[in-house]
Design a protein that fits this description.
Helix content: 40-55%
Number of domains: 2
Distance between the termini: 30 Å
Order of helices and strands: HEHHHHEHEEEEHEEHH
Strand order of the largest sheet: 2-5-6-7-8
Largest sheet: 5 strands, mixed
Radius of gyration: 20 Å
Strand content: 15-25%
Structural class: alpha/beta
Number of strands: 8
Length: about 260
């Protein structure tokens, strides 16, 4: 039973809203933007959505990219990709960078108005010649064609919000931040004749001019949601809520 509870994501009170270990992470804030009911069940009541599979290949790509850019960070030189895309910057060196990258640690800022800590684990930070920090996020996928821009799909909107939260956090920590961030997009090629124990990738850089003006209002709205003793409405596009509703309806009909 304990293993089953762990798999479906029921947490102890310390990790829920009001508990000493709870923080409003970037991903939790994005969950609020997606579906307030799922956000409330997760953070107030401790019942998270079912876990999907781990994206272990994506994690491997992230780790290798970090090692690759760290070589240029130590050398204070631009990565060839940055040069190829005309980006006048180098990887940024900071004593807290490893903490900023670490899941469950990340960049942290306690908002005085909300009275809660907001956190987010960033992939990378670059710096331009005038000292502005540039938020960088690594993405790995396998799609047809070359990825050269972000669309208006749900996933791409989430990526944009993700970058804007990181920009907001860095600004709140006192850094000057460039409005333009970059996605280093790694796309697995599927047009090879055979696998032969090797994956080849196209790597592109996509710019995004962020606007973090929405972040603080979203934080305050999320806090208001969690402070309420009433369940919020679910998003009409939330597949998890629709599943719960359909399953409940079928069960009630079966009982009749």
């Amino acid at each position: 039973m304990a293993e089953y509870v762990k798999k479906i994501g029921i947490r102890g009170a310390d990790w829920n809203y009001g508990g000493p270990r709870w923080k409003l992470s970037r991903s939790k804030l994005d969950l609020f933007m997606e579906c307030q009911l799922c956000f409330y069940l997760d953070n107030r009541l401790g019942v998270s959505r079912p876990r999907g599979p781990s994206f272990t290949l994506n994690i491997a790509v992230d780790e290798l990219l970090k090692k690759e850019f760290d070589i240029h960070r130590a050398a204070k030189s631009a990565h060839p990709l940055m040069t190829a895309y005309g980006i006048d910057a180098i990887p940024y060196a900071h004593k807290d960078l490893n903490d900023w990258r670490e899941n469950f640690v990340g960049m942290q800022y306690e908002d005085p108005e909300a009275g809660i800590t907001i956190s987010g684990a960033i992939d990378d930070v670059w710096v331009d010649p005038i000292g502005r920090l540039i938020v960088v996020d690594y993405k790995a996928t396998s799609k047809e064609g070359k990825i050269e821009s972000l669309s208006d799909s749900g996933w791409d909107k989430q990526y944009k919000r993700q970058m804007e939260v990181y920009q907001w956090l860095l600004r709140r920590k006192g850094f000057e931040v460039s409005p333009t961030g970059y996605f280093v997009y790694v796309n697995g090629k599927k047009d090879k004749k055979a696998f032969d124990g090797r994956l080849d990738f196209d790597v592109t850089i996509i710019s995004h001019k962020g606007d973090d003006s929405w972040v603080h209002d979203a934080i305050m709205d999320a806090k208001k949601c969690l402070d309420s003793d009433h369940l919020p409405a679910h998003s009409p596009t939330c597949e998890f809520c629709m599943y719960r509703k359909f399953a409940r309806d079928v069960q009630q009909e079966a009982k009749k």
